[in-house]
Amino acid sequence: MARFWNKIGRVAVTSVAVLALGAAAHAADTIKIGSSLSMTGPASFLGDPEGKTLEMYVEDINANGGVNGKQLELVIYDDAADANSARTFATRLVEDDGVIAVVGGSTTGATMAMVPVFEDAGIPFISLAGAVVIIDPVKEFVFKTPHTDRMACEKIFEDMQKNGISKIGMISGTGGFGKSMRGQCMDVAGNYGIEILADETYGPKDADMTPQLTKIKGTDGIQAVVNPGFGQGPAIVTRNYRQLGIDVPLYQSHGVASKSFIDLAGEAAEGVRLPAAALLVADKLPDDDPQKPVVTGYKTKYEETTGEPVSTFGGHAYDGLMILVEAMKRAGSEDPAAIRDEIEKTQGFIGTGGTVNMSAEDHLGLDLSAFKMLEIKDGDWTIVN
């Protein structure tokens, strides 16, 4: 595989065989797909494993004959989690690169900046970001693979119900994902008999959340705290939480579902609960779990290839690429509209995020059973039964 960077943050990824082709044969024998990811910048912990995953599996697909007899050519741009850059790169993918489909969008902000471009162009777009607003309301050409922030709230509140928790505090990041999940938790809390007694926020550059957490600690009756957010913010919240000696359960979101969160939070992460994909506990799944072969296979390949621990974020990219490839095979065509129709018909696809069953009304295709409730014990993920 060849990888080329230039000053505008573009990576063109193709197989060696494709590089050797002449221009005419290249156009005839390749299928160009695109991506814009946050491979550097504040969300690189999302975009870096996503980019590596796409590269790995495009190389594999090409080595095994490609798709419909043609090689895939993957064009990736690094938007560094900047919404304006993401929109610019989306336009380039459509107008300059001529891609027929896109798997990308590491963050909600970058994704939503790209959505109008791909909708207007009629290009299928499978997002790797978390917020429910990406697919609700349904948009004709937009799909996503990660569980939504609304689902995360529901899974957390289900666990609280089981443990007799009904009064909580919230401390949320003000970025796109944190803001969206806060709103979703507010919206569904009443369905689970949850009362939110304290509601604090922090900015993306805040390095100390002690004042907000002190207010939460001083609020009478709080039985648990939820922290919607991703990046370094939740790790800082977790450390400050322990430093203040807050002794009620702390719940994080699937936005921290990677080993980097445990590394950043250190011993303070002990006991933290969060909803996440089965990928993080691949080796702990029962042998008869239909996801086990998929998640263990991906985990092994990713870790052996990169030398890095697996995260659910790379898994989202795996699911998106494979859903796209299967749709392209079924369509037997490079027509974006035909591919879009086949993505929407995805049924029984077993990915790292769960079993996907899409429809015209559901461009995600996952339900709460696809989420595992995890707890961090001794620096590792464990399944909460």
Automatic annotation (TrEMBL):
Species of the source: Stappia sediminis
Entry's family note: Belongs to the leucine-binding protein family.
CDD domains reported for this sequence: PBP1_ABC_RPA1789-like
Keyword Signal assigned: yes
Signal peptide residues on this chain, from the entry's feature table: 1-27
Entry annotated with the keyword Transport: yes
Ranges where the Leucine-binding protein domain occurs: 30-364
InterPro entries per the UniProt record, alphabetical: BCAA_transport, Leu-bd, Leu_Ile_Val-bd, Peripla_BP_I
Domain of life: Bacteria
GO BP: amino acid transport
Keywords for the protein's UniProt record, in alphabetical order: Amino-acid transport, Signal, Transport
The protein, known as: ABC transporter substrate-binding protein
